[in-house]
């Protein structure tokens, strides 16, 4: 099949948002020779920060001369983004070829694999073909029953942190969710805990002990942020001074510290030049990204209370004593009342949209939540309409919320639409 046909096939498979269990993936992997067994995997779970951690670590390892595969989700604009090697996404031709290989096996399974499960196995095949020195594998959701958890012997398991999100699937307390995230811990394989919640850490330590897996933590006291503005972040960490990170958002210094700690566990002593270049070159769209300088428009994918709180902390730093305009949309299964209350602390006005997803909260309902908080809020039919109205106030515009908005944001700002 060609690329268009391969996308149609994926879209026509089981598109369940969450279908726990690894049986379907295990069967599909076995049918194509278990490519995952050959991969040197760094397996990453966590409520927030997974993607940024993976991007930074991949950039560091690439600068050290390694071939690095990275699997992440969701895609912002094109599904190929989910599967990349050394920062270059899989080609349309390779994507279609690998879907064609998987199709006959997937179609014969009594319980057909989901779109995400097919994509996971496609990534395994691609990374095997590319002879990757490292594969950085991001969980889709949770960990224990996630499709990526067919990995048996990771080089390192990483849990970036735990907070309440996807409660209807993973549990409604931090402890319950931590049990799911800790499901990626394997016998005798090292674990890096990057979080700050004591209850979640206790759960991860319990699992690590049961699996005789050495557990490491990040020396957070060794992280000193020296400067943070819209040009980037300068920080010291664990003996390194004046490290420069191009990624914006105060939370990115923490993610960089997590990645540098992972390097140490992996016994990767990068040269000073490679380390600094890896941090400087790391790019991750949709995470406090300046998508327009004049007028100033920033896109951030914070979509749960912890993620939005970190985004608002950045807004308070970068735009001290100034209120901003939000263009925002969110999923109905999120704690959007808590999210809205935090955004209200820095909001001048809000324009709400309905993200292109079946789980989206209608724009009118979201606007009403902000109005009850005393913030002027206007529902809009499209992201483009929201941005156009937001720009009339001549204030910084922050597109904050679901990553499913990102493609519409980019389209709204493309030259032909302005």
Q: Brief description of this entry?
A:
With 418 residues, this protein is an alpha/beta fold. The chain is built from 15 helices and 17 strands.
Characterization of this structure:
It contains 15 helices and 17 strands. With 418 residues, the chain is α/β, with parallel strands linked by helices. The chain folds into 2 domains: 3-281, UDP-N-acetylmuramoyl-L-alanine:D-glutamate ligase (3-Layer(aba) Sandwich); 289-417, Mur ligase, C-terminal domain (Protein-Tyrosine Phosphatase, Chain A), CATH 3.90.190.20. The strands form 3 sheets. An 8-stranded mixed sheet has the order 4-3-2-5-1-6-7-8, with helices on both faces. Helix 1 (3-11) packs across helix 4, helix 2 runs parallel beside helix 5 and helix 3 (50-63) packs across helix 9. The mean pLDDT is 93.
**Radius of gyration using CA atoms only:** 21 Å
How are strands sequenced across the largest beta sheet? 4-3-2-5-1-6-7-8
Largest sheet: 8 strands, mixed
> Would you tell me which CATH topology of the largest domain applies?
UDP-N-acetylmuramoyl-L-alanine:D-glutamate ligase
Q: Quick one: how many beta strands? A: 17
- Strand % is 15-25%
**Amino-to-carboxy terminus distance:** 37 Å
CATH uppermost class of the largest domain? Alpha Beta
Shape annotation? globular
The CATH architecture name of the largest domain reads 3-Layer(aba) Sandwich
**SS class:** alpha/beta
Tally of contiguous helical segments? 15
Average of the residue pLDDT scores: 93
Q: How many domains, in number, for the residues? A: 2
Percentage of residues assigned to helices? 25-40%
CATH superfamily of the largest domain: Mur-like, catalytic domain
Low-confidence stretches: none
């Amino acid at each position: 099949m060609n690329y268009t046909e391969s996308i149609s096939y994926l879209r026509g498979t089981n598109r369940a948002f969450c279908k726990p269990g690894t049986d379907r993936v295990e069967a599909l992997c076995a049918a194509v020779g278990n490519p995952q067994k050959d991969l040197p995997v760094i397996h990453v779970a966590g409520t927030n920060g997974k993607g940024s951690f993976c991007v930074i670590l991949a950039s560091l390892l690439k600068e050290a001369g390694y071939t690095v595969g990275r699997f992440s989700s969701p895609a912002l604009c094109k599904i190929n983004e989910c599967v990349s090697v050394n920062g270059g996404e899989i080609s349309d031709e390779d994507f279609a070829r690998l879907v064609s290989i998987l199709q006959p096996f997937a179609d014969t399974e009594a319980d057909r694999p989901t779109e995400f499960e097919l994509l996971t196995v496609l990534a395994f095949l691609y990374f095997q073909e590319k002879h990757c020195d490292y594969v950085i594998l991001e969980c889709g959701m949770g960990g224990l029953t996630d499709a990526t958890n067919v990995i048996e012997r990771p080089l390192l398991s990483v849990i970036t942190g735990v907070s309440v999100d996807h409660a209807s699937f993973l549990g409604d307390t931090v402890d319950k969710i931590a049990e799911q995230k800790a499901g990626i811990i394997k016998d005798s394989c090292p674990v890096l805990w990057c979080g700050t919640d004591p209850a979640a850490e206790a759960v991860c330590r319990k699992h690590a002990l049961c699996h005789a897996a050495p557990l490491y933590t990040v020396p957070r006291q060794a992280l000193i942020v020296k400067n943070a503005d819209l040009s980037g972040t300068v920080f010291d960490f664990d003996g390194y001074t004046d490290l420069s990170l191009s990624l914006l958002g105060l939370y990115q210094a923490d993610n960089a510290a997590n990645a540098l700690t992972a390097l140490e566990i992996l016994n990767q002593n990068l040269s000073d030049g490679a380390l600094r270049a890896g941090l400087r070159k790391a790019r991750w769209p949709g995470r406090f990204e300046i998508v327009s300088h004049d007028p100033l428009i920033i896109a951030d994918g914070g979509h749960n209370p912890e993620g939005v709180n970190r985004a608002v902390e950045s807004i308070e730093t970068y735009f001290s004593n100034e209120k901003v305009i939000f263009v925002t949309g969110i999923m109905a299964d999120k704690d959007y009342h808590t999210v809205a209350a935090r955004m209200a602390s820095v909001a001048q006005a809000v324009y709400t949209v309905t993200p292109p997803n079946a789980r989206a909260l209608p724009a009118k309902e979201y606007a009403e939540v902000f109005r009850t908080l005393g913030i002027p809020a206007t529902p809009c039919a499209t992201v483009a309409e929201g941005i156009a109205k937001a720009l009339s106030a001549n204030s910084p515009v922050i597109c904050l919320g679901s990553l499913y908005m990102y493609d519409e944001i980019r389209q709204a700002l493309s030259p032909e639409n302005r």
